[in-house]
Amino acid sequence: xxxxxxxxxxxxxxxxxxxxxxxxxxxxxxxxxxxAMKSQYPGRVIDAFSGINATEFRKLYKKRDKSxxxxxxxxxxxxxxxxxxxxxxxxxxxxxxxxxxxxTINTYPYDLTEKELELVIMxxxxxxxxxxxxTVVNISPEDLTPLYIKSMxxxxxxxxxxxxxxxxxxxxxxxxxTCPDIGLLAPxxxxxxxxxxxxxxxIKATGKSPFEAMEELVSPLIALKFMPAEFFSMDxxx
Length: 238
What we know:
By secondary structure, this protein is of the alpha/beta class. It has one domain (5-232). The protein has helices at residues 14-17, 20-28, 30-38, 54-62, 66-69, 78-90, 114-127, 146-152, 161-170, 173-176, 197-204, 210-218; strands at 5-13, 98-106, 133-137, 155-157, 179-187, 222-227. The longest helix has 14 residues, at 114-127. The protein is globular.
């Protein structure tokens, strides 16, 4: 009797696994980088730094390239990958088929060589003790449609989740294809501005935090799940 195998596939951006925010800050303004390192950087609620507001930083971050990766250290998100791998394998005890964990790394927007891609794969494979298959793709936010996600992945992790939501809300893709059963892991960060005191008061009156309210708002479209920004920040234990 053969056992059917099903893949449980986590799509995670390379930008979730490496702290490219600090790398970009380091390249642009070493003093701002040093101040960020001395502050509560992992506990930040917005990507705004000394002398650089969130809008300015987004413009810098949009221009990141492969050269920034050499200054980008690993994040705490590796623990999520390990947990995903273990929980997928444990599910084999409760299902009639074999669940195979797969980690797919989205290397967009970086143009990596074959050798560099192999190093990425090997690094993540080691982190999972080679219990998960590891593969790579290079897909832009525009091409990463809800339909594609729904057909390929069990869960996705994005740093710049707002951009993806805005793109596929504007072009109607999230109306055509909803993904309420697909988890979208994202950092607890505000986008360009912090909410006003009045906005926070209105949200708190509902008994929810701003991030819980956002999760509920988009839940018919995708199962957004916020995680502390420290998971997407340089692992200080390195």
